[in-house]
Amino acid sequence: MRWFRTDLLGKVVAPLPRLVAALGFLAAQAAAQSPGTASVLLTISLILALLAGKKISLGYFLILALSIVGFSLLSPFGKVLVGWGPLRITQGALEEGALRALRLIGMVFTSVAAIHRDLQLPGRLGSFWAEVLGYYQRLLEARHRIRPARWIDSLDEIFLEVLPADSLEEKGVVPKLNSEPVQNRGWWSVPLVWGLAAALFFGLGQ
Amino acid sequence: MSSPNKEIHGVSRRRLLAFLSAIGLFLAAIEYLLPKPVPFIRLGISNIPLVLMLDVLRFRELLVLAAVKVLGQGLINGTLVSYVLLFSAVGTFTALFTMAAVRRLFGLRLSLIGVSLWGALTSNLAQLGLSVLILLGENAWVIGPVILGTGGATGFLVGWLAQMFQSRSVWFREVRRALVSD
Amino acid sequence: MGRGETAVLNLPRMKGWDLIPLLLTLVLAGGLAWMGVRQLEGQPMVEIQTPEGQFVYPMSTDRYFPARGPLGTSVITIRDGQAWFESSPCQNQICVQMGHQHEPGQWAACLPNRIFLRITARREEVDVISQ
């Protein structure tokens, strides 16, 4: 059942337009003023993140949301909904906490949906990043060889193989990556997503 | 002792930085996979390359290392345009500036563990302050003791691991020797 | 060139000055704990009881609160750490004349409109005022 881990978004939109499109959506989420609007936007961004094949740990985000709301409830204000002695759940604090949680977590989902690992960085930074990713992949491949009981020795073995000290003296081959060369596909998504975000934001009453 | 061919050594330090950045990302990946009982407490083992290389690399290079770690994590986890990046950046750079500063102030009177403890302290304070500002509000100060306590423990761990690796790693010894002759 | 020893861990080698960040961490942790506890309990609050329900607000934030009762809306003002009835649709206007309240325990009420206001410290028990 690997289908749900494929990046469906990546098949139609290249990394850069994908990011630019997301920025519009992020703006709407950051500016949302009601929990209702924020939760609609969050739901959409969650779906998009799943369509991007990303793994979302819902349990983690639930705990995060409850923590944000919980801390907000510690400063009660507004109509008292439930009260046991000194502990009071108030409407104002609840809504404020809910809004903050929905906004922030929604933005994380949007970011996760938008960012593709092969996003090309400009100029020298880009080639440096490619080099870093190359080494990163080699380390990931070698991770099974790390022995906790002899961690320094096993790490030394791997490191000396990937980057021996005397190779610092010579020019070498930069490890190559397989990446999508097409960077311009999908710019149509930018006005689409920005328009959708604006429609939702103003249509739902912010 | 300057090298006869600056260009070659320019490449070599760059490759070392790229490799160290990759190690930082690799450790961050491990950190990401570990269960997180509390959402805001981070282990900080991805800072080990910074601590390890604190006395070996130039400050400019350490900045690059920190920046690539923060941005790279954002790219790989997809959190590049979210509040997570802000926390990561604030935490990492606060730690780096503090560690470099105390190293300059106290020199070798501090062990690597002490340096790491300083970094952990200021980094956690900064992240706690950020939590108050954008995540949890005024009441977040309540969890301050927990954050500082666990942060101190992981700071100790990071410093200790870096110290052990520094003294026993053959790879580290060779790299240091190659850099010194640069 | 020797290989590493077979031991997994070495004893940590610390120096005297390492104690400074350690102690600083403890002191700050304690300070934050104290700050947090004060944050949670200290703030005085305004409790407003109306036929629509109970409302609470911190004294530190200025606001106007329209309290709706059977006669109409009584406006309660919270400003500069004090709370009072600004206006009320009742005949006798006793609530308005009761003036500004600012200490925990002080109260004012518009009985005809069934609006009751009270200053409390945060940690006090909530007494449900029977109408």
Structure notes:
- The complex is a heterotrimer of chains A (206), B (182) and C (131).
- Chain A folds into 2 domains: 3-120 and 180-203, no CATH class; 123-169, no CATH class.
- Helix content of chain A is 61%, strand content 5%.
- Chain A has 8 helices and 2 strands.
- The longest helix of chain A is centred in the middle third of the chain and has 24 residues, at 91-114.
- The model of chain A has no long low-confidence stretch (mean pLDDT 83).
- By secondary structure, chain B is mainly alpha-helical.
- Chain B has a single domain, classed as Arp2/3 complex 21 kDa subunit ARPC3, CATH 1.10.1760.
- Chain B has 7 helices and no strands.
- Chain B has helices spanning 6-33, 48-52, 59-77, 83-106, 112-136, 144-168, 170-180.
- Chain B is globular.
- Chain C has 2 domains: 13-42; 43-121, mini-chromosome maintenance (MCM) complex, domain 2 (Sandwich), CATH 2.60.320.
- The radius of gyration of chain C is 27 Å and the shape is rod-shaped.
- The N and C termini of chain C lie far apart (88 Å).
- The relative contact order of chain C is 0.16.
- Classes of the chains: A mainly alpha (206), B mainly alpha (182), C alpha+beta (131).
- Chains in contact: A-B, A-C, B-C.
- At the A-B interface, helix 2, helix 4, helix 5, helix 6 and helix 7 of A face helix 1, helix 3, helix 5, helix 6 and helix 7 of B.
Structure summary:
The complex is a heterotrimer of chains A (206), B (182) and C (131). With 206 residues, chain A is mainly alpha-helical.
Main attributes of the structure:
heterotrimer; A: 206 residues; mainly alpha; 2 domains; two-stranded antiparallel sheet; 61% helix; C: 131 residues; alpha+beta; mini-chromosome maintenance (MCM) complex, domain 2; 3-stranded antiparallel sheet; 2 helices; 34% strand; rod-shaped
